[in-house]
Specification:
66 residues
Length: 66
Amino acid sequence: MSTVQEIEQAIGQLDDHSLGQLSSWFEDFLAEKWEKRFAADVQAGKLDKLGEAADRAFEQGKCRPV
């Protein structure tokens, strides 16, 4: 049995309260991982072209208030 299968089986045995706690923790865990990846991408300059395109669009009057 794989580790993922063992985890799935264990999750299936949780009561509602524990399942809610796990769900909340996992959402926070995924958000933190996403934020770290995003920050690393920004540091590496992977979003520079998108920022430049947004600046050009703004300067050309192609933006509108939200």
